[in-house]
Design a protein that fits this description.
The protein is of the alpha+beta class and about 240 residues long. The protein has six helices and 13 strands.
């Protein structure tokens, strides 16, 4: 995992927690919003002030997914999604239908207050409550999965949260985060996508393509020797 990212006229230099060093002309920063907000990666020099302001303006949505593995198909033929108004969770879909497998994995999503309501319960109880809503919706009181699990992105040290949300006055925060820094640091991720595409996989994908195009459009830049740390072996850079 990258611990420090140094950038400047020499290009960029990433140092990992186990001491490995990687150098390049540019870097694409795809760290999730939660990791950026937590400062888990140290930038040297620090990111510009407008980046920090944008990070403070954007929040992180409370979201959980619940996964239920069944040994046989559960949804009726031709049905891949289910919406249950008023239930918690209220959105279900099959993650396996159409992939040529006999088993079926149903995924449920809860966000906002509904996510917080489930997170206030022990995991086993949250899963049981969700299963009960599915049983009632399908009129199958004996429906029982072979496996079940709840995933909360804030518990994952590599994400520290789900997708971004903009509060009042933060409409430009994502475009600020998307801007390159000195043609060395380029930024991608759903939190850098336009407001219409933010918080989506499509937005993350599109932002990656955008960052790549920004780098490809650059003219070659000269590099100088990177700064050395104590006990670090000098590195000879090829001519530009």
């Amino acid at each position: 995992m990258v611990e420090t990212l140094e950038w400047g006229p020499f290009g960029v230099k990433a140092t990992t927690t186990d001491g490995r060093v990687f150098q390049a002309d540019q870097a694409v920063i795809t760290l999730p919003l939660g990791v950026l907000k937590a400062g888990r990666v140290r930038f040297v020099p620090d990111l510009p002030e407008d980046k920090h302001t944008a990070l403070e303006q954007l929040g992180i949505t409370d979201a959980v997914k619940l996964f239920f593995h069944f040994k046989e198909p559960i949804f009726p033929e031709g049905i891949v999604e289910l919406y249950v108004p008023g239930a918690n969770p209220d959105e279900w879909w099959s993650s396996t239908r159409g992939h040529g497998v006999e088993a079926e994995i149903l995924t449920a999503l809860a966000t906002g207050d509904k996510a917080r309501e489930l997170l206030a319960l022990p995991e086993t109880q949250a899963l049981q409550n969700a299963l009960e809503t599915l049983r009632q919706a399908l009129s199958r009181p004996g429906l029982t999965p072979s496996k079940a699990r709840l995933a909360h992105w804030r518990d994952d040290p590599f994400t520290l949260g789900a997708y971004s949300k903009a509060s009042v006055g933060a409409s430009k925060a994502r475009s600020v985060l998307a801007q390159p820094v000195d043609n060395r640091l380029f930024f991608a991720g759903e939190h850098t996508a336009s407001n219409a595409w933010a918080a989506t996989v499509h937005g993350a994908y599109a932002s990656g393509r955008r960052a790549a195009q920004e780098i490809l459009a650059l003219k070659p830049q000269p590099r100088v020797r990177p700064p050395l740390r104590s006990r670090e072996t000098p590195v000879l850079l090829p001519s530009p």
